[in-house]
Amino acid sequence: MLRVADALDGINRGLAHVIRWLALLMVLAQFAIVVGRYVFGVNSIAAQESVLYMHSTLFMLAAGYTLLVDKHVRVDVFYAGLSPRGQRRIDIFGHVFLLLPSMTALLYWSWPSVRNSWSILEGPIAVGGIEAVFLLKSLIPAFCVLIMLQSVALLIRLLCERPAQ
After folding, report:
1. Which of these, 8, 24, 99, 150, could form a disulfide with 64 (CB 3.0-4.6 Å)?
2. Cα-flanking dihedrals φ and ψ of residue 80, to 5°?
3. What is the H or E stretch that residue 21 is in?
4. 111-138 in b/e burial notation, b at 16+ Cβ within 10 A?
5. 91-144: per-residue pLDDT in tens?
6. Would you list the domain boundaries of the chain?
7. Rounded distance, CA 129 to CA 155, Å?
């Protein structure tokens, strides 16, 4: 089972190694947009939207990796004071009853919108923008699947490890 968890971790880890370069590309694109606008008087809606697309892609596709490395937002009002066994129970409860069901619901309810967007190849957000909103909307199910895969990997580890006293 731990090999399955390792394989699932590998998906998010590998994806993170690729998409992390979007952060640099996004900064460079934004810099070019600002220089173009204020130095040369040139403006491009598509270039501005490209930063939005890169930011969305980076955020949505890196969320699983963020969960993997335990850098997600955690409301630990009680969690920090619990024993390792108590923390493990909270983590298992969170994955089984909160995270996985909420991702399943988001995937289910967003799918018709994504499917419709692909069927009409939904166009730009603004006139002159990138004609690929259908790709942007596709990030929603990708986000759900990546989070669910990572949640399953973490759940496997939680259920296979020996609880500390």
Report:
1. 150
2. -60, -30
3. helix 21-38
4. eeebeebeeeebeebeeebbebbbbbbb
5. 999 999 999 999 999 999 999 999 999 999 999 988 999 999 999 999 999 999
6. 2-160
7. 41
